[in-house]
Design brief:
Layout lengths: L14 H23 L3 H36 L8 E5 L5 H9 L4 E6 L11 H10 L6 E5 L12 E7 L8 H14 E11 L3 H10 L4 E6 L14 E6 L3
Parallel strand pairs: 1-2, 1-4, 2-3, 4-5
Antiparallel strand pairs: 5-7, 6-7
The site of S-adenosylmethionine has 23 residues, from α3 and β2.
Length: 243
C-alpha cells in the first residue's frame, strides 16, 4: 500500500544514532584518503569499504525514519474499521498516531508521550499538535503528557493500542514490562495491540503471555523498518486480549 501524502513534519528517530553513523562514514573515508596518500593501499581499501558500508547504513536509517516506517504502519493500520478508540504509546511527533487518526473518521486517537528530544529530533507536544492540524485530524486527536509506565486511563478504555519504537527507550527491563502491563490493562477485552520495536520484542511477548494473552504473534517488519541494517531490524508483536 502506498503512503498517502503527509502534510506534517516528523523529524528523525534517535538523531544521535544517525549523526554517529554519518560521522563514522566521514571519518572512515577520510582515513581511506590519508592511507591512499601515504601509499598504504590495503588499509586505504579497508577504510574505504568500511566507510561505504557505514554510509549505506546511514542511508537505510534515513529511509526508514522518513519513509519506511510510514509504509509499514500504513499496512498495519489498514485493519482499523474507523470507529475505534486508539492509544499510541510514545507517539512522538505523531507519525503513527496521525496516520491512524486519518482512518478513524468515527473514532478517536490518543497519543501519550514525554516528548524527549533525545528520542526524536524536534520532539514536542506543540509540534505534534501542529502536525495534527496539518493532517486535518486535530478534532479526533487527544495528546496526553505522561509516562507509559503509569497510564492515566481507566481499565479497558481502548479498542486498539499501538506503539512504534518507543518502549525500548525505557532503560530497565522492569520498566518495559510495566509499560506492556499498563498497555494490557487499558486495552478492552477483545482489543488489539500492535507493538513495533527494534529491541526486546521477545520480552514483550513473554509479558503478554504471562498476563494470559494466548493470541500473540511476533514477526519481522522487513527491510523497510531497518535502522541501518538487518541487525537493527524491527519486530512487531501483535496480540489480541481475550474477550
Ligand atoms: C523514537 S521516538 C518514536 C516516536 C513515534 N512513535 C514514531 O514512530 O515516530 C520514541 C518516543 O518515545 C517517547 N518516550 C520515551 N520514553 C517514554 C515514556 N516512558 N513514556 C512515554 N513516552 C516515552 C519519546 O519521548 C519519543 O517521543
Amino acid at each position: 500500500m502506498s503512503v498517502s501524502k503527509r502534510h506534517g513534519s516528523y523529524g528523525f528517530d534517535a538523531p544521535w544514532a544517525l549523526a554517529g553513523l554519518l560521522f563514522g562514514a566521514i571519518a572512515l573515508v577520510a582515513l581511506a584518503v590519508v592511507s591512499f596518500a601515504l601509499d598504504v593501499l590495503a588499509a586505504g581499501l579497508a577504510f574505504l569499504l568500511g566507510g561505504l558500508y557505514t554510509l549505506a547504513s546511514a542511508a537505510s536509517y534515513v529511509y526508514t525514519t522518513r519513509r519506511g516506517k510510514f509504509a509499514v504502519w500504513a499496512e498495519e493500520l489498514q485493519r482499523l474499521e474507523g470507529d475505534e478508540r486508539l492509544l499510541d504509546l510514545g507517539c512522538g511527533r505523531g507519525a503513527v498516531l496521525l496516520m491512524a487518526a486519518q482512518r478513524l473518521d468515527k473514532g478517536r486517537a490518543t497519543g501519550i508521550d514525554r516528548w524527549r528530544s533525545k528520542d526524536q529530533s524536534g520532539n514536542g507536544e506543540q509540534v505534534t499538535r501542529a502536525n495534527a492540524e496539518a493532517e486535518g485530524v486535530s478534532d479526533r486527536v487527544e495528546l496526553v503528557r505522561g509516562d507509559m509506565r503509569d497510564l492515566p486511563f481507566a481499565d479497558g478504555t481502548f479498542d486498539v493500542i499501538v506503539s512504534s519504537q518507543a518502549i525500548h527507550n525505557i532503560p530497565d527491563a522492569g520498566g518495559r514490562e510495566q509499560a506492556v502491563r499498563e498497555a494490557h490493562r487499558v486495552l478492552r477485552p477483545g482489543g488489539l495491540m500492535l507493538i513495533a520495536d527494534f529491541q526486546h520484542t521477545p520480552a514483550y511477548e513473554t509479558t503478554l503471555r504471562g498476563l494470559g494473552v494466548v493470541d500473540v504473534r511476533r514477526r519481522d517488519a522487513g527491510w523497510r523498518f531497518w535502522y541501518g541494517g538487518p541487525w537493527f531490524g524491527t519486530g512487531v508483536v501483535e496480540a489480541r486480549k481475550p474477550a
